[in-house]
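Researcher: I need the complex structure. Ligand is adenosine-5'-triphosphate. Inputs:
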Amino acid sequence: MDPQESLRIAARSIRSHKLRSTLTVIGVVIGIASVVTFATFGASVKADVVGNVAGSGANNVYVFGQPADEEGFEQALQPVFTEHDVEQIAAMEGVQTVIPRGTVQVNSVTHSGDTVALQQVTATVPATVTNDSVVEGRAFRSGANETVVNEAAAASFAQNVTVGDRITVARSNETWTLTVVGIVNGTAGELPIGGFGPDPRVYVPTDPYYDTVVESPNQGVRQRAYPQLTVVADPVETLTVTERVESYLGADADARQLAPDGIELVARTSGDFAEEISDVIEQITRFVTGIAVIALVVGAIGIANIMLVSVTERTREIGIMKAVGARNRDVMELFLLEATLLGTGGALLGLPLGLAVGWAATRYAEVGFALAPTWSVLAVLVGVLVGVVAGLYPAWRAARVDPIDALRYE
Amino acid sequence: MAQPQSDPVVALSNVRKTYDLGGVVEALADVSLTLDRGSYAAVMGPSGSGKSTLLNLVGGLDTPTEGAVTVGGRDLSTATESERATVRGSDVGFVFQTFNLMPRLTAVENVALPLVFDGWSRTDRRERARELLADVGLTDRTDHRPSELSGGQRQRVAIARALAPTPQIILADEPTGNIDTETGDRIMDLLDDLHEAGNTILLVTHERHIAEHADRIVHVRDGVVERIETVTA
Ligand SMILES: Nc1ncnc2c1ncn2[C@@H]1O[C@H](COP(=O)(O)OP(=O)(O)OP(=O)(O)O)[C@@H](O)[C@H]1O
Ligand SMILES: [Mg+2]
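Model: Output:
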């Protein structure tokens, strides 16, 4: 039959039950909108985090130990990389500098009379502070009573910390009074695995503040040892440096002998992290979006339900249509079209709503907004499909109505 | 009044129709009947004698249990569902006691409905429907819904709808059963006009004076044709 007329008839019967149709469509809208929201939010978080990670030091090679059965970026915190290792790696071709990084357990930090609890500060070398990361001031000097804090740490006191201020770090058996010489953003040069917003960080020079020492198997003397190194490579040699470092770690490194059983020493670039993180976020997104699909199924059931009611209510009308020449196919088509319109309407309203809520969520989480085009298109198609599938059985029932019975039907 | 030549539009031969609802109900036992083109026949008989069943079989709404029902040369007992739909849509026009109009459609849309399934274009449908409504005297009611029309007006819409696809035969099942006598007479006048214009009509009724509008009265009892009476004017 005339497709335009089919559309008109289907649209008319939807309009004749405004409230019912609206509620049914809302069911689909909620389903589609949740799928789009979660997919969009997931894509936004991924784009943001991966952007941060990949953007931060593409030529950094992160060297650390990790439990052998771990796939991701779980770090082992044993101090296995000795000064000897640092020197060996620093001497490699293509390596600009090696930044060792260790933690020092502390209790609290005080600034202008305001004391904040802090478990650890980061002991490292001045090269930690790069042009990219410094917001104000300069790097600390080795051997000086100087410190650099990140913006998160600077803001955690009653009075914001600025360059030139003094802070007091309290340990269980001593206190250090340090002059703040620089403020950095982010978590400068650390393993790029933080969540949103960086944690507060206080950086101090390894000399004199880092006191973890072990005996170097190669040198036979006691040296400082670190749980983590960041190797800054020549940008064009990042990959070869990664390989060189890995082969060193697998052969002569002190770390190899110091690392306990089950700990594997690895060298990773930020690209590797970006990949791992995006895998994880994608998995989470897929899982959550999968849950949202349940809402869509509920929406589909709503359509099927309302269509079945509609078939029963309109039995007499179906009989009339058949009596004036409608074929089973025509009746089937009309009801299927009606269900499809409900699904499509839900999808078309659900998509912008989902995008809007997704956008609001990214604002709330303070990450940039990114579209998930595949999911969005898929959501609309699924909405249409939901209508078709939900309409199939009711439409089949309608088509099978016997005109004689239907015309008797009161 | 000798028929010049027999030209059957509808032919039933040895038609039996049973309904099986636990026990078998025999609505029609053995009916043979021929309706010539341009003829006007009325079916009379007590309630439950099988009048409506007969009409439904001719109209392709139902299929016979045994025997053949031929409408416009097509045997409905062997036709597919879709072929019977075509017969319902273009070969016969049904007029029911309860009107059976689509409640949400206007008069003109109701009249145009059979043409939708017959593949007419929208403008042609409208034009034809308006003409037919004018023919039954409803020019000023084209955009009213059935609920806004009187019983007689509804039945006139139904008759216009039955005529829409220029059917070979008009089937009317107690068309005056739900309306008062005076309005009923007007409906009967309309059917007389249609007969005059050359339409073939098969009418079911309880009432003698209604049946006398026809040329022949087919008396049915317990599912068989008892006798066929020729009406003399
Ligand atoms: N769909 C059906 N299912 C079961 N039995 C039916 C069905 N249709 C008709 N019958 C039976 O067939 C018989 C004839 O019915 P039909 O409707 O043809 O009678 P009728 O002559 O039109 O009666 P009335 O004058 O009351 O309309 C009745 O006994 C009826 O109960
Ligand atoms: Mg009857």
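Model: Summary of the prediction. The first strand of chain B starts at residue 8 and ends at 21.
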